[in-house]
Each structure stands twice: as structure tokens, then as C-alpha cells.
Design brief:
Layout (H helix, E strand, L loop, with lengths): L15 H16 L7 E6 L6 H14 L4 E5 L7 H4 L9 H5 L5 H4 E3 L5 E4 L8 H5 L2 H13 L2 E5 L8 H5 L5 E7 L5 H12 L6 E9 L6 E5 L1
Helix pairs in contact: 1-2
């Protein structure tokens, strides 16, 4: 999947794509019934595995299900959320907030989808790892937890940079996106090592771009 794929919209007919993300939303409720799941992070081993595509579509179906949802682009190296939503990616965003050059109203944007707001990554900073450790990140997440039912965080690939490990302290659940025929088997060892070392908490896999046995197209599943 990529930003060129059509995202789920309010008037989209029932389809395998939409149903798969609805299934993913339901699975999150049942698979994580014993842990908080208000804030959900997305990562992958590298770029091109569809984490942004999955984050945008899951956020959309949650909002269309009647929830108040916020999507945050925390990939301050290669931001793509606003482009995927067909929104202008210029102006203040997460990086602006973290360096204390913008207020929450400055960075919050409506997507045009009922119930779904977004915070873009903002101008690409020279030091994204340091910014991710800023106390203002904790301040932002605390304020947003009070406003929204669900917060989805599209983070940098864990296999490339360290920001996601820093962001883990703000997340309830991590969805590690694995793309069929693209994600390398060795990437799974990294996740296992991080979990065993206690650096990652609750991690679930989301299988992306999986061929359906029953129909042409793609399936998106949590696993």
C-alpha cells in the first residue's frame, strides 16, 4: 500500500478493504481486553511497509464508528500522514509544538472526516530523536488523552531509528506492520529482542498487503 491507495471515506461502498480495517478495529478490542488501548502506535522495520496507510485507514474507521479520534504523525524524518489524507503538509505540526513555537490549537487540524482530527509532523527538524524525548511530548499526550477516545501515532520505523523506542513510553499498544513479500524475516528478530530486553511493551502484528484466497485484492488483518 502507499499514499496513492484510496483511503476509507464516509461514502465508500462496503469492500474488502473497509471490512478488513473494521475487523482490525474489533480485534484490537478483543485481543487487548486486559490492557489500556487508548493510544495506539504504528511502526515497521523499514519504510514502504504501509504503516501510514494502515494508521490513516484504521483511524478513519474508528472515527466513522462514532469515536473521537486523533491521528499524530510522529515520523518527523519522513512524514506522510497529511499527504495520505490529501491535506496541505505545510505549517505548524508536532515538531513546532515540541520546540515551543506553536500551541495546541495551532497544530490541531480537522480532516473533513467526522470525528477525526490530525496533527501533522510539522517542519522536519535536524534532531528528531532529541525532540521525541522532550517533556512537551508528555504534556501533549496527557492533554490529548483527555480530549479523544483514541489516539493513533504514526512513528518512524523501529528498524531504522530510535524515536519509536522513546515514544513507547506514551503508547498503550504497538501495532508492528508486516508487509507480505516485503518485510524481511530477520526484522522479526529485532522486535523479539526488544521485547525480551524490556524495551518494548505490548506489541501486536498487523499483516498488510496479504492476498485474499477468496477474492482479488488485499486483506488487512491483525494477528
Amino acid at each position: 500500500p502507499s499514499s496513492k491507495r484510496k483511503r476509507v471515506t464516509p461514502d465508500e461502498p462496503k469492500s474488502l478493504l473497509a471490512e478488513s480495517f473494521r475487523t482490525g478495529r474489533i480485534n484490537l478490542q478483543y485481543l487487548n481486553s486486559d490492557v489500556p488501548r487508548q493510544v495506539i502506535g504504528f511502526t515497521s522495520s523499514s519504510s514502504g511497509e504501509g504503516k501510514t496507510f494502515c494508521a490513516v485507514n484504521l483511524a478513519t474507521v474508528m472515527a466513522l464508528g462514532g469515536k473521537r479520534v486523533l491521528l499524530i504523525d510522529a515520523d518527523m524524518r519522513r512524514p506522510n500522514v497529511l499527504k495520505t489524507l490529501d491535506l496541505n503538509d505545510e505549517g505548524a505540526g508536532l515538531s513546532s509544538w515540541l520546540i515551543n513555537e506553536a500551541s495546541i490549537p495551532d497544530v490541531l487540524r480537522s480532516t473533513g472526516i467526522p470525528g477525526l482530527d490530525v496533527i501533522g509532523a510539522g517542519p522536519i527538524p535536524p534532531n528528531p530523536s532529541e525532540l521525541a524525548e522532550s517533556p512537551r511530548m508528555q504534556e501533549l499526550m496527557k492533554a490529548m488523552r483527555e480530549r479523544y477516545d483514541h489516539i493513533l501515532v504514526d512513528a518512524s520505523p523501529v528498524g531504522l531509528v530510535s524515536e519509536f523506542v522513546v515514544l513507547m513510553g506514551h503508547l498503550d499498544v504497538t501495532l508492528y506492520v508486516v508487509r507480505e513479500r516485503r518485510t524481511r524475516r530477520g526484522a522479526m528478530r529485532l522486535i523479539n529482542e526488544l521485547v525480551q530486553a524490556g524495551k518494548l511493551g505490548r506489541v501486536d502484528l498487523l499483516l498488510n498487503d496479504a492476498k485474499s484466497d477468496k477474492a482479488e485484492g488485499y486483506g488487512y488483518y491483525t494477528k
